[in-house]
Amino acid sequence: MNIGFDISQTGSGKAGCGYFAHALIQRMLELAPEHRYSLFPSFGDFYFDALMPIGNPYPGRDVHYGPRHLTREAARVFWTGNNAEVSLGLPDIIHANNFWCPTQLTSSRLIYTFYDMGFVVDPSWTTETNRVGCFDGVFRSAIAADWVVAISEASRTHYLSVFPHFPENRIRVIYPCSRFADSSAEGRRPKALDAVSVGSYWLSVGTIEPRKNQRRLAEVYARYLALGGVPMPLVLAGGEGWLMEDFQKHLAELGIEAQVVMTGYVSDEELIWLYRNCYANLYPSLFEGFGLPVLEGMQFGAPTLTSNSTSIPEVTGNAAILLAPEDIESWAQAMLRLAMNRNERDQLGMAAQKQAALFNWKSSAAALLQLYDEALASPKRRVEA
Known about the structure:
Elements: E1 2-6, H1 16-31, E2 36-40, E3 63-65, H2 72-80, H3 84-87, E4 93-96, E5 109-114, H4 118-121, H5 128-144, E6 147-150, H6 153-162, E7 171-173, E8 202-205, H7 214-226, E9 234-237, H8 247-254, E10 260-264, H9 268-277, E11 280-283, H10 292-299, E12 304-307, H11 312-316, E13 321-323, H12 328-340, H13 342-356, H14 361-377, H15 381-384
Parallel strand pairs: 1-2, 1-4, 2-3, 4-5, 5-6, 6-7, 8-9, 8-11, 9-10, 11-12, 12-13
Helix pairs in contact: 1-14, 7-8, 7-12, 10-13
């Protein structure tokens, strides 16, 4: 089988989508080295990383790279042209992973990874440019994709509710897993926490942006302190995202600016340390396609309080405290209870590790390879229409 696979977001600055593609191609190369792999360092005209790839991070006996484009315009011309499929050698499979979706494939089976459509639920969670670009790709997948890979049952359900014409039997759930291979790793303390004691801080991981709900989490933390909660600092680990320019002002207005530690971007080693040594991991996100910070925290034994919405209950099972993300009082009360009950906190941590162990990349890659076989054995969707 000749597998064409989009690795455009797997460069040094990769985030959730990039980690998904990165881990899947690594495991597929291990499980099925007999296939030919054509890896695309640029894919489409929505996302472009001129430095991809710097080297060859995916060694294998039959691994090849597709065209390397030096400019976004060159990538756009190639990927939107009618000759792209032929120029790529007519792969059996072309798998899109960065929201962009081709519509001109006539031979290759087009597989499309669908992450989420939070931008449809609430347009204020992102910028207009990102919202339009992402929805354009998802919309085109509903027209042109032969199969869709959804990263959770919640994402699958949402996709079919927005595009009810898409055949249900051609959308398959394949779960992401943790980026961290070694669950025993200790990590490295971030400098921002030099003055903070091990096991004595609340943690929340994620880019500071409206959908991650840190503004409301700050209000929860202020309420927790007002109710007499143990004054453990709140550590926010993540870079600054969009539409949150006044977040520091919000902390000051709540009177908690001195109790909140904002680390900015942290390395993987620092993130491991943060998960392993927090009192609990707080993740009040309003909408998730999956929720990797929840799974990764649980992997390292972080007791978890998180949202009861969208995909997150699929990740946590019964191993976390689930709360409505808008309910400030319930969150504050849950934090108070956990702060006063070390035994419950420790039991949550043990349950978290057991739950996290259920997710592994080898199983996800095997499921994807099976889907490729099914796709090749089936006619292209457009032919059926």
